[in-house]
Batch of 3 targets.
Target 1
Amino acid sequence: MCGIVGYVGSQSALEIVMAGLKRLEYRGYDSAGVAVLADGGLAAAKKAGKFVNLEKELTERPLPTGTTGIGHTRWATHGGPTDANAHPHLDNAGRVAVVHNGIIENFACLRAELEERGHELGSETDTEVVAHLLAEEFSACADLAEAMRLVCRRLEGAFTLVAVHADEPDVVVGARRNSPLVVGVGEGEAFLASDVAAFIAHTRSAIELGQDQVVELRRDGVTVTGFDGRPADVRSYRIDWDAAAAEKGGYDYFMLKEIAEQPKAVADTLLGRIDAVGSLTLDEVRISASELREVDKVVIVACGTAFHAGLIAKYAIEHWTRIPCEVELASEFRYRDPILDQQTLVVAISQSGETMDTLMALRHAREQGARVLAICNTNGSTIPRESDAVLYTHAGPEVAVASTKAFLTQLVACYLVALYLGQVRGTKWGDEIHAVVRDLAKIGGEVERVLETMEPVRELARSLAHKNTVLFLGRHVGYPVALEGALKLKELAYMHAEGFAAGELKHGPIALIEDDLPVVVVVPSPRGRSVLHDKIVSNIQEIRARGARTIVIAEEGDEAVVPYADHLIRIPATPTLLQPLVATVPLQVFACELATARGNEVDQPRNLAKSVTVE
Ligand code: AGP
């Protein structure tokens, strides 16, 4: 959950690192710090609070100019957000600096050993022990990469480490285990970062690091080994995001930009997936057709918004393939002793590809012999690397903590997986698959149309900014949409919000209805399962009769809802299973606007991080 940047080259390391950290601020922002090698020594600055506090510190007390440096933005796990706990952490001699993302589970015993050997540790963090251990090992071997390998072999837990030593002025060393780290390779310079957004302004050539690897950066090249020192095979790849893609592009918030990017994100995720004869070609899905034909159960594991995408995927997978599909919260999955075997296909959905709950769930699944397919938005991240196959969404960088375009592209990817299973298993004929793909190809335009009609939704949101709670109802695929709308409002407006299956109202929740309580109702198409449509219209009448303020999302042409809707939000008519792709958008806009009306920080909501890399 922290942001890490390292640089070695001929430019000002401070400028490169600070700009990179600025782009990673969303990964964690309760403190930040930098360290630069210059004049034979090491200089560092770090401050608690927002990134701007570090910028002010550096203005008042500039660091010397150097061409090697590291930096960090923190989301606290061990130790509160204080100056002392901010990274980088140094050894007592001030010759080693290290930044860290993750958790070192055995830091307490390592700290005790260090203190017995006379080291003085001043922070509450787990990270600080690494600085002292590196200093000890370096004093014996005089090689920072080797010192890092020796130290990593003693650490337990999940970590990305990046360090510098004043005695090696043109070297940056990194290491990773169960935590993100990517390498950028430029002309006479090299970069390390938690996320490519930190260096794509300088290079699009990247190297994917594997598990338990140490990377040594020098101006003239990059060396990667295992923790055991043996040379490691690495994969180079080209980053297809440009620098502008990670900027706000004129919007007040990254979230607004990312909501607006959804039509393109949906279209991009479909690109290249249909071959010349109209068949689906999911070339990253490195599971053979024969293996997929043996699948007798699908289990989807994910968290938060990604979990809601999985709930929607279940309807499509079961309807199109007739394979039983379970959807599990990743944090619960492995603790319930699930029944998995070679015939189980586990689908791990994750925007960041680093969510520890989801990563640990897929590891458990693989240990049980299941095959794992990842649906992920971040190239080179841990979850796809540890899966048997991956289908990348092409949403581009999603910077705002509240997931929007990643969610819509996860749905598209889930539909493609369901269709692909239907194709290889023969439960969907080619023309049926083509028909769905044609409908999917229209969705980008339909989302665009929805976005053009959002002003009444924004006005409604502002008018409800004083409310304490909003309920969300839906049926069928509209039920997970209701859950997602409630989550958006919770995480952005810090407001109580709850999603229900509309059929559950009479089993308890209807007791919550009181005068002027806002209730959002996602209405299924009357053209699909009309019985569901009629039932939810009855639900709307029931809550309205008890005083609710009904906010109804219904497709164009659905007149049955009009008499019972205090506010009517129209969406384009779509096939039943694809409706979430258009019904979710007004709920994203609603939550973002209401949060803005409340004066909340939309891109970085309190207590949340973009990627939850601890369990
Ligand atoms: C959703 O708006 C949140 N940001 C959060 O629920 C997120 O979806 C969840 O933490 C999963 O993240 P992932 O997709 O990166 O695995």
Target 2
Amino acid sequence: MTAATIQGKTGPWEMVIGLEVHAQVVAKAKLFSGAAADFGAEPNSQVSLVDAAMPGMLPVINAYCIEQAVKTGLGIAGAINRRSIFDRKNYFYADLPAGYQISQYSDPIVGRGAVTIDLPGGVSKVIGVTRLHLEQDAGKSLHDRHPTLTFVDLNRSGVALMEIVSEPDMRAPEEAALYLTKLRSILRYLGTCDGNMEEGSMRCDVNVSVRRPGEDLGTRCEVKNVNSIRYVRQAIEHEAGRQIAILEAGGGIDQETRLWDPVKGETRSMRSKEEAHDYRYFPDPDLLPLVLCEAEVARIEGSMPELPDAKKARFVAAYDLSAYDAGVLVADRETADFYEGVARGRDAKLAANWVAGDFFAFLNKSGKALAEAPVDAGRLGGLIDLIGDGTLSGRLAKEVFEAMWESRESALQVVERLGLKQISDTGAIEAAIDAVMARESGKVAEYRSGKEKLFGFFVGQVMRATAGKANPALVNDLLKRKLGG
Ligand code: ADP
Ligand code: MG
């Protein structure tokens, strides 16, 4: 799946991918103003004088956003820089009233870090993170509200973003998808970004180049603002193919900024690549360097939750799960907590099968969120207890689960209401077997004369006679004994 090369007409090529992720910080207020940062509000209803860049307004840094960035930095094993600087990045845009964005350039708040991705086959790969810096978001131009006018909504202007830049360490679209999934999972565990790509609170610029294996890095193109993981995959695939075709035809790649067109499934040129010096970065004279004290960083470090990788390792060790099962269960924090609620004190493997199997199948079909599921962790645990003590066979348990989902009852309530208790009474099962054998004496004779594949037929008949409630293991044992004799 993550083959390192793709085949061109003249031989194999290697893709090189680096991602820049813009993650909107979860915070009540903006990075340098007290205006609200909620999504979906009435246009221009959350705009302070600072966000509208009125002359003479001064930015005041939001300490909570800083804490969120530090937390995220620690979550991606990043070096927390004790001193960082806010710069002005100058450019003109209708939805950027100040004419510059406050960002960080030479001295970001977080330096080198790493995100580990799990490749198929149990192999993991470390993707380097170059830096994480804080910056303001711009406003939004609305081109589709009027035939000849463009409207500007400044609600987003000044909202805190973390830009997380990866090293060009990925070699296949699938690796980029795994990196984004893992990064999003970490951000959500930390509560520092909701990771919602459809609402734009996590956006991705995709840098792609190709080279012959073993050669130096090729010239990259940057595909801007790709807003789903599926599109990231497709954009990489398309962009690499486009570059290979140019190179194989003897051409060269122009470093440029491109757009992804999800309808046509292709990238197209937006502008030639701007250089850092085009932005005339300089330290914002309204803001002092940001200095973090040790005690503050230590306090934040102490408040960190257990993150997916650590949780996965613990699940494998404590619950004896496969790395794959553990990976599925820790992908988000709610699922992991739910699983632990079910597994604690029970057969952990069976609990994992139920959570990842029937429970998720029903949940996905219902379109409900985990917290709204009609069967909570305690009730699912109760069902597993009834399997453990022999009250329910696996098959009956599925039936009970379905009824629990409908009625919100406990497993025991359903078992009693529907009379679904497994029959483990030897006498009752023997009676059913005797009746079947008497009725099917011909088949009994055939079986005894060597037609052993008839055994399944007898099992089916006994199960039918007991309305599916006989303990399957007991039926097997008793049938073997009686048919044998
Ligand atoms: P810029 O702001 O100019 O886009 P950044 O340093 O913010 O520059 O981001 C550069 C991104 O491009 C990083 O994610 C990096 O990994 C990636 N990158 C750099 N060189 C290459 C290359 N040759 N091929 C693919 N990606 C690259
Ligand atoms: Mg860039």
Target 3
Amino acid sequence: MSALSPVLVDLKFNPEGVARALKTAFSDRGSINVADTVDAARDLRAVEYALLWKPDADLFSRAPNLKVIFSGGAGVDHIIGMAGLPDIPIVRFVDRSLTTRMTEWVVMQCLMHLRAQYAHDISQRRREWAKLIAPEAAEVTVGVMGLGILGQDAVAKLKVMGFNVIGWSRTRKTIEGVETFDAGELDRFLAKTDILVGLLPLTPETTGFYDSGLFKKLRRDGALGQPVFINAGRGKSQIEADIVSAVGEGTLGGASLDVFEVEPLAADSPLWELENVFITPHDAAVSEENALFRHVETQIARFERGEPLQFVIDRAAGY
Ligand code: NDP
Ligand code: OXD
């Protein structure tokens, strides 16, 4: 019997965590971690499976016999545009822990804006006892853009918190107790939204999508007064200069951003300075390495048993 092909790993995140988790993962076939100096120059021609996050530009020419590509995250935009990308299945990472982490972040940000936490932060620094009367969650409509794995979990848990939740996606979804809109109903969706939550993948359609024109269409007579923009999808979907001016002129009452046009966010970005903008460094929902490797092992086992792979992206749609 010929030896099983090792899994090629090129993950540009948390190198110590990846190296540690690889010690026990893929025990039947082994792995080649190109981030590790020992493996960096290895011959990749026989490799059949690659697990990638922002891989080296020459990876596909070095590994010309791949059968399946696995994304190290839920998004695949870091691979889709690459030169030499072979026409083979691309499987994205779908995992309970990743989904849960994202929902924690989304719910936390919605609550921070509901309760005007930035104003409390300012008062605290000034040692001021300044009570605020916040609306109830039920008075506020959260509009979730993207009703996929992450969007639907966020919707369910935002509802548990009492928010009125509506949702928008390319194709209409049916979710009990949630008014949903399809791509053609964007303006109707925005006009009902007080807090906009972006959980969209980056595709040509969603590039530069969150701009001043869109912010102006959000509801302005809701319980929060000024609408809020929250984005944890992809930074290249937002126009940051428009966010800065929308917050400055009051079109937006605040924002929460986990993703940015260019990451890391430049030290001189005006976003850092805005009191009512919460910034996190693209860590809303990190991929936990052990869970990621288990998911890849499961999918390879399915593939080798002749069963369909799960979570394969639609190359034409780009996600
Ligand atoms: P899914 O593929 O499960 O869902 C994507 C959703 O977006 C679907 O509802 C889809 O519509 C909708 N959509 C895509 N394109 C359009 C469009 N042009 N117009 C309207 N709706 C559109 O993805 P996930 O929920 O798993 O993940 C979403 C994104 O979150 C990832 O692609 C990634 O960019 C980001 N992410 C960010 C993380 C972070 O830490 N900040 C962590 C993990 C993911 P339809 O249902 O009709 O197909
Ligand atoms: C992902 C991410 O796509 O972490 O999983 O951004």
